[in-house]
Amino acid sequence: MRSHRTLAVLGAALLALPLVAACGSGTENSSASADSGKVAITATDSACDIAKTDFQPGDVTFALHNKGRRTTEVYVYGEQKGTFTKVVTEVENIGPGTSRDMPVKLTPGTYEIACKPGQTGDGIRKRITVQGDAASPSPSAAPASPSASATVTETAQPSPSPTGAPDREIEVEAKEYELEFEGMDKLTAKVGERIEFTLENKGSVEHELELFGPDGKVIGEVAPVKPGQKGKAVVSLTVPGTYTLKCGIGAHADKGMTATFTVN
Ligand SMILES: [Cu+2]
Question: How many angstroms does the Cα of residue 50 sit away from the middle of ligand 1?
Fold first, then answer.
């Protein structure tokens, strides 16, 4: 008698299970495609596939999957004077067969995502669009919540207009194997300054310029520049400390293509 009842209950539970499961997975699917979920970027040696290209302003996490045979890196570039050269964020050294997350806060506008198999060159670029009103997203997307660390960094910036003129320009010459600029070793800058770095390649192979903040994180990059050519990047100096310039190609930095400056 009792076992019959147990069986009946069990039977009912089993019958109910598929329904629950179906319901649950349906919910997961819809939330994965919403902005709160991760957006997959699949990089191979010849492709850079992004799961979607239209976004709402706010925080997005890209799930980067390297299905190629070469180590890759993925960049998000913002638009600057009609070209996509402003590094919004990037993840480097994504080995073949591995995955990494790339969180980013997107404000309205057009961006290019670049997958760079072999970690060199302009990469394979795809455009994404973030909808919305450029004037309003920051206050609404960034409630004064101290828990959102990405938001805190943003609002902590002295916030000159991101498209405004830089406070100064520094021309860096690159050759094998050194970086050189005027006032090197004694250059100091102030917190809040925006500096436009121009990299002029006076060598005979490609060079690039990576800029690291005091915490070792990349704050900007001049993509690889061919001999005789120039590239630019504007960076905001948001915290005091020692900043580092490096050529990120091969072992160039180890061979001497590195420099530092101080921000007070
Ligand atoms: Cu170099």
Answer: 30
Between the CA of 248 and the centroid of ligand 1 the distance, in Å, is 6
From the CA of 123, how far away is ligand 1's center (Å)?
17
Cα 201 to ligand 1 centre (Å): 9
Instruction: Judge if 172 and 258 occupy the same domain.
Output: yes
- Taking 3-state DSSP, the helix, strand and coil percentages for the chain, each rounded to the nearest 5, stand at 20, 45, 35
Dihedral sign computed on CA atoms, order 119, 122, 128, 132: positive
pLDDT-derived band of residue 187, with 50, 70 and 90 as boundaries? Answer: confident
Beta carbons within 10 angstroms of residue 253's beta carbon? 18
Confidence (pLDDT) at 134: 59
Q: Would you say the C-alpha torsion 229, 110, 214, 73 has a positive or negative sign? A: negative
* Segments forming the whole domain that contains residue 197: 168-263
- Alpha carbon of 206 to ligand 1 centroid (Å): 6
Would residue 190 count as lying in a domain?
A: yes
The long-range contacts involving 160-164, CB below 8 angstroms and separated by at least 24 positions, are 160/192, 160/194, 160/236, 162/78, 162/86, 163/80, 164/194
Distance 59 CA to ligand 1 centre (A): 33
Are 156 and 109 in contact by the 8 Å Cβ rule? The answer is no
Report CA(228)–ligand 1 centroid distance (Å). 13
Residue 75 placed within a domain: yes
218 C-alpha to ligand 1 centroid (Å): 17
CATH at 222: 2.60.40.420
Ligand 1 centre to CA of 24 (Å) is 51
| H helix or E strand, kind and range, residue 169 | strand 168-175
Amino acid 155: pLDDT: 38
